[in-house]
Inverse folding.
């Protein structure tokens, strides 16, 4: 796919065909949804590299060594993960007296837990070398229930294809400067979605440690490469102290110091400099929409805003005086109105986690502040917003209704490299969005985006749908003024979907 295109351009010395940047907008790993053979491979990597053990607090596990002792079956980890009594919904408590899982993914049977597991996952995700070292083809499960054997076999076949493609992934990352930011699955599904979720997760020592381990591995494997000077200044002393506490019980067993580990996790969770900018033309501003949330003050189970007031002010300061800018927002700033309406309905019914009721317009404070930034007289004329997260692709051209200017906003969403939205559900949502939110529909005036005109580009080839439900990676070319000159999605089978400048008004 992209590697073949880049390699061909380099071989032919066609620099104009080689992308300047590769921007991965979240969910580089799925820590909450690990295939059985991948988890078994992670265990082999931990043994091979003698990665350290760690102790757990308020867990049925004494330490991480128990995860790999052969006592815990694959596809059975959801029983180990912490739970809590959800008091945010009286109806829910009346109907269901059982405790609620903190980690809300529907597929958390193999959720990553220890720091060493997260590190091993990253090592396996980017390079083929360790897959060879552990002899993946001969890998067999040590402990697995009979009903999971079919799943294991299917997942292993899929992973064989994944491993075959890793040399091209490594070559692509070597050829193109690559930048990343987390979304939820790099840590766990629905990470920091609501105040209630945060309260449950961070007040339980075990879940807090799991989240801290995810952030620790993100720091080393993603964030440090994004902004090495910032990370070195902020974390070098902390890391030196932390790793000085790693001790060896024998020649092969290393252990993390429990107190240092606990303190380090607390420091990680308070850190507020995960966002960064690139001094390019146009400037690239990469947003942290996970750790600096605008928390709801009315109800514990209402979705938090993706960025709080202070973070939004800092974002605006990065934009002042620019003619154009590229903004990386993991979730689209301008999404599909009908799907956002479904999310709002789920929230009102007290279940925002069911369909990930998470978008920029879900929280009044962050939504209104965001729209004020776009209408500010000193912010750029051309905004290019790059997003993923939603498991389908689309392009919107957005203009202000009541402002005579040449300012343009381009919402470009491509998601994901692997995942796709369930069909025919997406086609139904696409069709209903197209008819319910026509240019003259009164429903538009009940949305927070009523000050904006939204034009939906028609993908080619596609006669009817505005939403492309095929996995792929987005390709955007900008003109000298920072406007998109070309937008397309490259699919794994070599085909390509174009988004020409033909659209219908929303």
């Amino acid at each position: 796919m992209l590697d073949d295109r880049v390699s061909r351009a380099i071989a032919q010395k066609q620099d104009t065909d080689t992308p300047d940047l590769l921007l991965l907008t979240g969910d580089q790993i799925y820590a909450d949804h690990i295939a059985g053979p991948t988890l078994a491979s992670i265990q082999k990597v931990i043994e091979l590299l003698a990665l350290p053990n760690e102790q757990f607090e308020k867990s049925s596990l004494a330490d991480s060594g128990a995860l790999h002792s052969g006592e815990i079956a694959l596809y059975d980890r959801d029983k180990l993960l912490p739970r809590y009594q959800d008091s945010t919904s009286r109806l829910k408590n009346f109907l269901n007296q059982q405790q609620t899982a903190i980690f809300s993914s529907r597929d958390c049977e193999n959720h990553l837990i220890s720091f060493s597991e997260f590190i091993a996952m990253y090592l396996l995700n980017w390079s083929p070398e360790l897959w060879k070292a552990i002899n993946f083809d001969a890998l067999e499960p040590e402990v697995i229930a009979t009903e999971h054997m079919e799943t294991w076999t299917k997942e292993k076949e899929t992973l064989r294809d994944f491993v075959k493609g890793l040399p091209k992934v490594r070559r692509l990352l070597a050829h193109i400067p690559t930048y990343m930011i987390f979304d939820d699955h790099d840590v766990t599904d629905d990470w920091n979605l609501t105040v209630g979720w945060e309260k449950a997760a961070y007040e339980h020592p075990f879940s807090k440690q799991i989240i801290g381990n995810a952030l620790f591995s993100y720091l080393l494997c993603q964030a440090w490469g994004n902004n090495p000077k910032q990370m070195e200044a902020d974390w070098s002393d902390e890391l030196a102290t932390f790793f000085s506490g790693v001790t060896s019980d024998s020649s092969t067993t290393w252990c993390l110091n429990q107190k240092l580990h606990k303190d380090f996790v607390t420091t990680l969770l308070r850190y507020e400099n995960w966002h960064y900018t690139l001094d390019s033309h146009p400037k690239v501003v990469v947003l942290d929409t996970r750790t600096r949330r605008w928390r709801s003050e009315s109800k514990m189970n209402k979705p938090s805003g993706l960025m709080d007031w202070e973070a939004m002010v800092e974002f605006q300061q990065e934009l002042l005086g620019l003619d154009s800018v590229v903004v990386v927002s993991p979730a689209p700033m301008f999404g599909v109105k009908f799907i956002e309406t479904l999310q709002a309905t789920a929230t009102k019914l007290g279940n925002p986690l069911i369909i990930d009721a998470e978008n920029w317009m879900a929280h009044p404070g962050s939504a209104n502040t965001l729209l004020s930034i776009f209408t500010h007289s000193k912010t750029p004329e051309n905004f290019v917003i790059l997003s993923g997260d939603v498991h389908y692709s689309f392009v919107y051209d957005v203009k202000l209704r009541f402002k005579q200017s040449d300012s343009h906003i381009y919402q470009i969403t491509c998601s994901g490299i692997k995942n796709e939205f369930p069909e025919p559900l997406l086609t139904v949502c696409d069709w209903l969005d197209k008819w319910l939110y026509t240019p003259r529909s009164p429903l538009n005036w009940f949305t927070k985006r009523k000050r904006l005109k939204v034009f939906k580009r028609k993908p080619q080839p596609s006669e009817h749908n505005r939403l492309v439900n095929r996995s792929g990676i987005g390709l955007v070319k900008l003109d000298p003024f920072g406007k998109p000159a070309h937008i397309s999605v490259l699919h794994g089978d070599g085909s390509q979907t174009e988004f020409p400048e033909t659209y219908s008004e929303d």
